[in-house]
Amino acid sequence: MEFVIPIPSAPVLPVAESTACFPVRRIYCVGRNYADHAREMGGNPDREPPFFFGKPSDTVVPRGGDIAYPPLTANLHHEVELVVALGGGGRDIPAAKALACVYGYAVGIDLTRRDLQAKFKDKGQPWEMAKGFDQSAPVSAVMPASRCGHPTSGAIWLSVDGTDRQRGDLAQMTWDVAEVIAHLSAYVALAPGDLIFTGTPSGVGALVRGNRVCCGIEGIGELEIVLV
């Protein structure tokens, strides 16, 4: 088969303690999945059905590192999240069977152009450009579930230049991983290679050029980025 342009390379994530790689198909994100974050964003902290948005797969930055401060924003925010890496999929997956689809877990940062998001929301416009810009999804190596299990609790944290910004526990998620997969699979057919960002605890805030951001999740790993 002849192609008119070179085939783009597929984004991949390293697998922890291995030479293997995890190919990334799609990226889904859950909005406001921690009650305290919903409150700080002016939303309803009650257990309402989850909502989802996406990022292009090539926004992934494997293992973090230097991140270019994006254009058209003066209010770039950090959001540390547990990332689910799917090894299976399907449509209308029952929550009781959802964890069988999980290959592993990683630490991710959902970078957000908060000022653009607010402007788009005020106008009733889509806000993908506030979320899906270049390098907006740094992700650590994937820890296989065969080694870490399926965490339902554990510290999740983020610091900027050594100062704590976010600190919570996975047990605070409004919808747990199995429930998130079940809800999301009602909208779309999930498949191996999909990543799901599962929401962030409170404490999100602005970043400036030169900031060093360190974050981690107990039993999963750590991630570091520098805004340049």
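Above is the first protein from milestone M3; the second protein from the same milestone is given next.
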Amino acid sequence: MPVPHLATPLSIGPVTIRNRVVLAPMSGVTDLPFREIAWRWGAGLVVTEMIASRELAMSRGESWARLKRAGLGPHMVQLAGREPHWMAEAARIAADNGADIIDINMGCPAKKVTGGLSGSALMRDPVLALSLIEATVKAVDVPVTLKMRLGWDGNSINAPQIARQAEEAGVRLVTIHGRTRMQFYEGRADWNAIRAVREAISVPLIANGDVQSPADAREILAASGADAVMMGRGAQGRPWHVGAIADHPPPSREQQREIVAEHYEAMLAFYGREAGLRHARKHLGWYIDRLAPSLPVEDKAAIFRSTDPEDVMQKMMQALQVQAEPTAREAA
């Protein structure tokens, strides 16, 4: 099977995405400010943070903030839950509020999620998982997709079977992270193991796990037989890199500094000053790790301690004057 060119479009049912490199949904990371940057710099598709279906249906917590689209398109909303009723209700709400694609989360390994029998815990109960999928598909007219892992652990690799049943239930695309839940993010993702899912389904397949460079993207496609790739942690500290994998021209070093400043301001506007300062710290840390890895520890700490946005950004811009050349792996 020939490896698809990442810069070419991909159809998910009636919806077409502009290229085959997708920004993974990451709770606490891929909020609206982050997604807007990734989209503007060429990502083929960006996905909301995971939204708890019952929370959305009952208008609780930050679910509505996570649902926001702000002109990005197609708008892919990821939902999580363990009850078919609430998944269906949340899917209807999402579709009514502009979602072009609904993604079902069956891959999150976090104990907070799996402890509630959601996320990857659903892979331990394929009957319940299928009932959630069927309820979601029946609730909306937009395409429904599924993201999951290889299985719960090494003794229960059941992604091919669940993917086949999901396709029969109407799912239009499947994404596989090449680890089990019990691996969390340890070790290396098994790209070859994803191929068993490719052989089980005819709908498009996205391969996910440890994609950091164009070379990684080519290799995961060849190993898995997937139609597209998804980048998660590889985008932290460089939201423009998703598009760069699909041959979109990356920003210059000066533009990267401008993106950092823009991202910081957008987070303060989105969350408010106090919450924005907290949310932004991890992103600033990732930017420093990517763009100024030699910054002294005390200078990094001073950025995190400051509660004055102007002071934070002044220190940050000074820090980013220390330029780091891309690693060989990033440039491959």
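Note on the second protein: The CA atoms of residues 49 and 66 lie 6 Å apart.
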